[in-house]
Amino acid sequence: MGLFGKHDDGYVSPFDVDDAPAYVDFSSADGVSDDTHDATHATDAASRHGSVDASTSARRDRAQQAASVSPNQQTSDHQTPYQQTPAEPSRRERQRTQRQSNVAQQAVQRNRQAVKQASRNRTTGHGGTRQTSASSKRNGKGVWIVALIVVIIFSTKLPQLVIGSLFGGGSDSDSSSFSSSAWNGPSHDDKPTKEKTGRVATYDGDSAEVTIAKAAAGPNDIAGQPTVIVTYHWRNTGEKTTTFSSFVMDRNVFQHGEGLIPTTLYNTKDSPIAGYDPRSTDTKVRAGEELDTTIAYRLIDKTTDLFVEANEADSLSEGIVSAFAISNDGTTFTQIDSTPLRKAPQASAEERKPLKPIHSYSADVLASITNVTRGPNDYNDNPTIIVTIDWVNTSEASEQLTSAADLTVTQNGRELDANYYMAPWPDGYEELSDTRRAQPGALARSTVSYKLDDANAPVKVTLKSRYGGHDTVTRTIKLPKE
């Protein structure tokens, strides 16, 4: 089945990696073919959002079960990428809707003024003969109906979806495809980006002063991966009680342009983690009060400097960024000026060459189905595969691959179910890497596992524009006989 679609919720049992069959790289196997072509219109955005939400919820449940957390252990869903469900519009989408609504309201005001002026002209004899009162009321009512329709249309996503349908092009033509950069780039009313400390706000009146306060080495997570704990100090500057998670902030941490995956650390009574509270994202803070909120992230390596993006500038909030240098032994994080790290290392022309453009309403990427390898059998001894995707974010802000594309894997015409591995993960696979964000221009890698229905039947892997575009990248693999 599709990436972020429904999953087999019962699949959480462990396996012994050492007993797993050897990996097979199908990239050079006979029958491998790469096809890039124009696809039919993208499926309905709302239905896709629904499957995304169901998928992430299922994967979160499995991950929590797999951890075997004791009753004393404390976890927080808001530390993971599941917090922002794709069914909810992003901050930039709400900005665009708000700006469009403002334009529509201005149009209403102009129509209202035109009606008043026309009424005065008719009454005083300027510009034509005087009309009867009944006729004037009928004309005024018609203008109001038209204005109301304009407001309704521009308060929805209809203009973007229509433009996407008109201008969405095939994957072999960049210029003819609809590019989201016209919609999700910085607007003229964006607030400035501040170093370390800035102010954020919401549409319903919440506001806060947020500081990227510090970073510290954390213990390895359940997958045995090194972690960093980032502390966000904030003060509630609004008029009502609120929580850190109520602010739709990006809260991204990057190493060489690739986003770190938020992870859960198990802070127990017997082994507390100093300076870490997984519940702090949902701790209620009264107006005027302050709190330290801590979030753990899985490091890609223990040497590359961190670029932290607490928020992207928009019409309501300031951008907030900072950076940290890591000591040679990977234990100390020193806060530094973020300016050199704001622009990620850019993918080279050679790295971009095998990638194909995928445009959608919300993001643009270059992507390639790089590899398909065999993974360990699941607990029912069903064969599995690992799909590897290399991609470059060509949008103007940090984005996820899934903002631009849906991934589906089919066998014998049927969509396969996504698979979940117990930690430790098999070589070449990273759980939740499909939720990774990337800075503009950076090369990133995502891996996803699927459970095969048939160990020998060919597998077709498809990346398709999420919505608002028609681009499709496919790869068909003829599996060798077992």
Reconstruct the topology from this structure.
Blueprint: E1 33-38, H1 45-66, H2 91-124, H3 133-154, H4 158-167, H5 181-184, E2 193-195, E3 197-201, E4 207-218, E5 227-236, E6 252-255, E7 258-259, E8 261-263, E9 290-298, E10 306-311, E11 319-326, E12 333-336, H6 349-352, E13 356-359, E14 364-375, E15 384-393, E16 399-400, E17 405-411, E18 414-415, E19 417-419, E20 437-438, E21 443-451, E22 459-465, E23 471-477
Parallel strand pairs: 2-11
Antiparallel strand pairs: 1-23, 3-4, 4-5, 5-9, 6-7, 6-10, 8-9, 10-11, 11-12, 13-14, 14-15, 15-21, 16-20, 17-18, 17-22, 19-21, 22-23
Helix pairs in contact: 2-3
Largest sheet: 6 strands, mixed
Shape: globular
Q: Report the span from N to C terminus.
A: 23 Å
Q: What is the overall pLDDT average?
A: 74
Structural class: alpha+beta
Strand content: 25-35%
Order of helices and strands: EHHHHHEEEEEEEEEEEHEEEEEEEEEEE
| Rg calc | 26 Å
Describe the structure.
- There is one protein chain.
- The chain is of the alpha+beta class and 482 residues long.
- Among the domains are: 17-83 and 346-477, Immunoglobulin-like (Sandwich), CATH 2.60.40.1240; 92-169, no CATH class.
- It has six helices and 23 strands.
- The strands form five sheets. Strands 2, 6, 7, 10, 11 and 12 form a six-stranded mixed beta sheet that branches.
- The longest helix has 34 residues, at 91-124.
- The model is unreliable at 4-88, 118-138 and 155-188 (pLDDT under 50).
